[in-house]
Amino acid sequence: MTARLAGKHILVTGAATGIGRAIAEACVREGAKVALLDREGDSVERLAAQLRGEGHHAQGLVADIAERAAVEAAVAQARKLSGPLTTLVNNAGMNVFHEPLAMPDEAWQRCLSVDLEGAWHCSRAVLPDMLEQGGGAIINIASTHSFSIIPGCFPYPVAKHGLIGLTRALGIEYASRGVRVNAIAPGYIATPAVEAHWQIFDDPAAAKARIEALLPPGRLGQPEEVAMTAVFLASDEARFINASCLTIDGGRSVVYHD
């Protein structure tokens, strides 16, 4: 590692597992102070303790990002312990897949409150730090569902399309004040949630193989591959990248299928 993020104080949401964990680990190893936020308090504190044991600066925070007051309290705690935030990675989210007319109202509300409003709650909480410092970076973990639709996955793509809109709107709103806002759109990544998904099929191995066959590299992506893209966007190397979305899906979204 090359200390590309030295001097950065980064808040990563959904940091206890999967892509969020990989981002948190990559950021501390690149020299950042990292605040790890998750609903799962025990899991996120274990990870923070592990990173501190490796000599890194990490703290665990607990909040449901759907609750604005909880987010603001967690950000205040991070600020008190480690100073103003310079960077936010809005990674926390949840899959909510339904046929639209069969969807319970609660499913719509929960999906939008976490996958879209949650990112806004976190952004609103950290933006004052960034504006006061004259700059900062927000990275929203979107999805290939942000621009492609799979039947039966409603309302998840609605929220993820909205997240791209939030990325662009905030990026343009605050560009002149030094704040960059970008998104990453992962495709199939080998996270615990995706691995658990195969288990709903009668033949999990065959289900996974069918998906891998659709991906041009013939494999799923790894969380670390998303994490290092986040490191780049958080670093000063990306200082002229704003209101953009980088897709990490091995090229799947540009392939035309009959």
From TrEMBL:
InterPro entries per UniProt: NAD(P)-bd_dom_sf, Sc_DH/Rdtase_CS, SDR_fam
Cited PROSITE patterns: ADH_SHORT
Domain of life: Bacteria
CDD domains: SDR_c
Pfam family, one: adh_short_C2
NCBIfam families in the cross-refs: PRK07063.1, PRK07231.1
Entry similarity comment: Belongs to the short-chain dehydrogenases/reductases (SDR) family.
Protein name per Swiss-Prot or TrEMBL: SDR family oxidoreductase
Phylogenetic classification of the source organism: Bacteria, Pseudomonadati, Pseudomonadota, Gammaproteobacteria, Oceanospirillales
